[in-house]
């Protein structure tokens, strides 16, 4: 909630009452970045080299910054959770101002943001980049939070529950191993099935596969949104005897009975109850509450930051840009997409700062390394048209050890050392070299 004096200030016309003695003054920055995750941190680093770093503020409440793509490997026992996180202080550019608070209200008509904390003055900006990510809504599934305290229920999507995934795979005895995909947009749409393939491999390695019925219950009507990779994944699930139930959405967990209830999205009002020995849940996700309640025209009706999908500039406010999972860009929400967006956003914001038109064009590039075992990966890369946009001159729909090595051993270094320091705009340049200038 805004304090009374702040409400008075933001509701009044700019200037007059704003600077009066009875209302708090705002802190002013040339550039404010909201969110210090993959997108916010990378953009702050880029601009800390372009403008006076003292004129940049990052609003970010978290102590820790996580390399979330690592959690697939943590759940599968290939990496430790501790390796996936670093202190926020260590990853944000040193010379900028870190406001360790939450943004609790956006006032884009007045270039102001209210932040959490008692008696905080509002933050005023000339330019704004919004990168708040997407909210996990575990509480939208009845019984789930309590179920996480019981054996077999886990989720790679949170540092609170990811260690439980490995525990559940290792502790598996006999029965259904169920992996879910919710009925909302999510980040890394491949992750719900990556951990299923890893669990399947583990069961095979440890002589448990004949006792496991591996099931993928997904709300989607397809296994993957890009046909080329979906075809390859259907071959994999057939070969590995994995049961896929489309349009099947988790609504309730009854941990005492180890049962999970799924609604049939094609037959409203009907549901099916599954017994489980292991249940890996990908939670429903959506815009952060503040975006739905206190962001005005910054967001579209669903609560996602409303951007021009090519320039990444806001559709209404020319001094506002956005990137990553909090936006309504119609591509798959991944760190790889964020990398591609960072290059375009920084070019376009820099143009706007210098009175020029934003000419950089984002093509919707995104990538999902679909880990399919302890040594293989299908490296999906595609664009807004859902057509493959592959970096390497090989068929990336084929399971590959090189792609696995890239995901497990190379990408973390690229993320921590290049991307967060503003030096990684995705692999477009390599793609052009690998394809010798031909193709996209
Ligand atoms: P985030 O990195 O989530 O950062 C958002 C930041 O905003 C957070 O630090 C948060 O604290 C902050 N914030 C939130 N609300 C507020 C507020 N009100 N005020 C201020 N700050 C706020 N991507 C890939 O490319 N490849 C993969 O293999 C891959 N695998 C994944 C596997 C899993 C299990 C998960 C969970 C994700 C995976 N991703 C992968 C997705 C990737 O991690 C995200 O798409 C990426 O982190 C999005 O970046 P972002 O900056 O938009 O959001
Ligand atoms: C990528 O650029 C990226 O961003 C840092 C990821 O996030 C961790 C990825 O998982 C992938 C696959 C890419 C794309 C990079 C290449 C070299 C294909």
Q: Give the termini separation.
A: 48 Å
CATH topology of the largest domain: FAD/NAD(P)-binding domain
CATH class of the largest domain: Alpha Beta
Measured as a percent range, the helix fraction is 25-40%
Overall geometric form = globular
Round the Cα radius of gyration to an integer and report it: 23 Å
Task: Give a count of the beta strands, DSSP E runs of length 2 or more.
Answer: 21
Biggest pleated-sheet summary: 7 strands, mixed
CATH homologous superfamily designation of the largest domain: FAD/NAD(P)-binding domain
Keywords: FAD, Flavoprotein, Mitochondrion, Oxidoreductase, Quinone, Transit peptide
GO cellular component, one term: mitochondrion
Domain FAD/NAD(P)-binding: 29-144
EC number: 1.8.5.8
What attributes characterize this protein structure?
440 residues; globular; five-stranded parallel β-sheet; disordered N terminus; binds ubiquinone-1; FAD/NAD(P)-binding domain; alpha/beta; binds flavin-adenine dinucleotide; 12 helices
